[in-house]
Fold:
Amino acid sequence: MGTYIGIDLGTTYSAVSFLDNTGRPQVIDNPSKADGNNITASNVAVIGGKLIVGNRARVQFQQGKSAFARFKRDMGTSITFDHGEKKITPTELSSLVLRELKQIAEDEVGDIEKAVVTIPANFGNDARDATMEAAKNAGLDIDHIINEPTAAALYFAFDSGKELHGNYAI
Structure:
């Protein structure tokens, strides 16, 4: 049986976590450490003909070279980015970031059974659907995405130590 993970697909940085053997959420360190320990830059760059995710892509973006950033803001829209002769969508770019986070998690905890991805509360249906598509394209088995404020409320409820009643997530 695999592990369940949670992913914060951020506009600037992203992170992945799992529940440890005590049931506490633990953010997984990015093994490159260049991304700031437990976060991964939500950037994609073309380096040596390959699409690279993370800090190297962020640096390339800052240098004005062939790189993409802040594409999460365009999820669910018709906006595309030039990648040589072809166009690449925000969904495709987000899928690359999610695939990188999945790999980081697999390297740390083994097989991933299911994942939950957090999104901003202001995401409309098109952006939600695009996020779900990006996650599936990254090889993640997800049933739901969850608003970031809801995720925070769930953690607060969990951390309170009180017995929980009712539905907290569907």
Summary: Residues 6 and 116 are 5 Å apart (CA to CA). The chain has a mean pLDDT of 88. Helices lie at 55-62, 90-109, 125-137, 148-159. The first strand starts at residue 3 and ends at 8.
